[in-house]
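Lab notebook, bench 4. Still working through the backlog of constructs that have no structural model yet. Next entry is a single chain of 190 residues. Request: give me the structure tokens for it.
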Amino acid sequence: MRRTPGRIRIISGSLRNSRLDVPDLPGLRPTPERVRETLFNWLAPVIVGAHGLDLCAGTGALGLEALSRGAASVQFVEPQASAAQALRANLARLKVDGASVDAVDAASFLAGPPRPFDVVWLDPPFAANLWSTLAQRLEQGWLSASAWIYVESPRDKAPVLPANWMLHREAQAGEVRHALYRRAGTLPLS
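Model written out:
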């Protein structure tokens, strides 16, 4: 049985209460409002003027929330064509500046020429188990020296992340663990 596509809303900032269309796609789980509110309270001191990367963007709710709260730019990466198209349509309808969408998988995007981001949202489909792989690729020039990285994963499965990602805050909501890390310089030499 196919569900009806849904809607979620931006919770704060210049786009507050704007609704986002959510396509009905397998594995697409928009980050709940309560979790987004907690995350952006944590990020409040650094989000204004930040350059963000919404990797495995899905609905784009995290990146759009950042833009609504003053981020300078957000690069969205979403491989599912219908999700990428819905994201582009939401960006156009809301007249959002500073955003671009790449309809490619996260690993392929990270195989391209790197450019550093200040904030990265790492929320891959849970079934794909991509946290560690994508985290290691992010360390290859995609993170500013003191970047913030948000990681959403199953409650019972903490991913293996680079040693220089220091846990700043974490919480749980239902079966989901959400955590914010701060990048501390470079990886130690092996």
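Notes after review: The chain has one domain: 6-24+33-183. Helices lie at 33-47, 61-68, 81-93, 106-110, 131-138. Flag for follow-up if needed.
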